[in-house]
Amino acid sequence: MQFNSATRRAFLVTSGLSVIGIAGCASSSTSAPIQAEPIVEGILPSTSNQALQKLLEGNRRFQSGQAKWPNQTAGRRQALALEQTPWAMVFGCVDSRVPPELVFDQGLGDLLNIRTAGHVIDNAALGSIEIGIVEYGIPLLVVLGHERCGAVSIAIEALDHQKKQEGHIQTLAEYIRPSILKAQGNGDDRHASVVQNNTLYTVNELYSSKIISDAVKASKLTIVGGRYDLDTGAVSIITN
To answer: With 50 as the cut, is the pLDDT of residue 12 above it?
Structure first.
């Protein structure tokens, strides 16, 4: 077969790509397997005080820009593929600025997260928390409200203007309404007051679950309320 210059160039390019493809496959097939990092039970917090201290230490790292981003390697992921041992639960808002693993500088397998707008309680949220108690024996639950919560703003607007929100958003407004009625101040101060009231309201409402209330009575679970500051990154505990 005779090749003209254009055909010859096309042949050489195609051949080169084929060789690269073969080499790439060979390299991929001979790559070293990922080494799983063992889950060391002895270093996991076993009490609510230890768990809370670990969370707050991580939050201080996050605030100062010295986060360690622990337990986020491929090996850690592989080690958790068949089991998990979370040691704290965070019931927080869906707000994209408040991801618990980042806020508390934790990683894969550390936290069991339940998130709804304004941490509004429904049966699914309660059931998810109950799983953390019954299946994993988690000793700490943090209800985490946050500064400038959008769900709170929606609820305030609905009440102030006697406006019914669309669809199931109205459910959020109705849940947060008691916290608005108890709020003090105006403007930003009022909003901050509602956020705090709503966090405490959620903490109290969790006791409607027998599993949760029994776990607290038996000292198997501690529930605390916290507030996240969007400006500083700090989490403050607002319950005793």
So the answer is: no
